[in-house]
Amino acid sequence: MVQLQQGKFDKALTTFEKLLTTAPPELLERCKMYISICQKQLDKPPLTFSTPEEHYDYAVSQLNTGYYEEAREEFNAILAAHPQADYAFYGLALLDAVTGHTEDCLDNLTKAIEMNPRNRIQARVDNDFQSMADDPRFTELLYPEVP
User: pLDDT tens for residues 54-81?
Assistant: First the structure.
């Protein structure tokens, strides 16, 4: 059931098909209904995006709803097609901050800032980096000393 709620329809389908063979009679109809739902979802055409920015918005929506694995897949797909997409590195940095991957957050945010220095300004006010605020490396990245 959790797989179904998480949108992992292929895994849920497999689970319900296995359950169908051993389920008590009172659960058979419910299993069949869930199998039907999974099949309908799997038959839908895959999402397509007109621009990488539109794809980024979708990835951020996955992040914001707690679908972290899916968000990471989407950010990485953007980077595979557009390696210079600084905003995708920024999105990965956000995801890493939210999920407690400090080193990855710093690496991805560094890349995002190197590609587009405006990301430094954005990160200074982005609440999603709150967990990083006490890390001196993060502070140094956002507020570098100017010689």
Answer: 999 999 999 999 999 999 999 999 999 9
Q: What is the per-residue pLDDT across 105-141, written as a single tens digit (0 to 9) for each?
A: 999 999 999 999 999 999 999 999 999 999 999 999 9
Which residue's entry shows tokens 């995801």? 95
Percentage of the chain modeled with pLDDT above 90: 65
Q: What is the DSSP track for the chain?
A: -HHHHTT-HHHHHHHHHHHHHH--HHHHHHHHHHHHHHHHHHHSPPP--SSHHHHHHHHHHHHHTT-HHHHHHHHHHHHHH-TT-HHHHHHHHHHHHHTT-HHHHHHHHHHHHHH-THHHHHHHH-GGGGGGTT-HHHHHHHSPPP-
d(CA 147, CA 144): 9
Domain boundaries 52-142, CATH class: mainly alpha
Asked whether the beta carbons of 123 and 105 are under 8 A apart, the reply is no
Those residues whose C-beta lies under 8 Å from the C-beta of residue 146, and which sit 6 or more positions away, are none
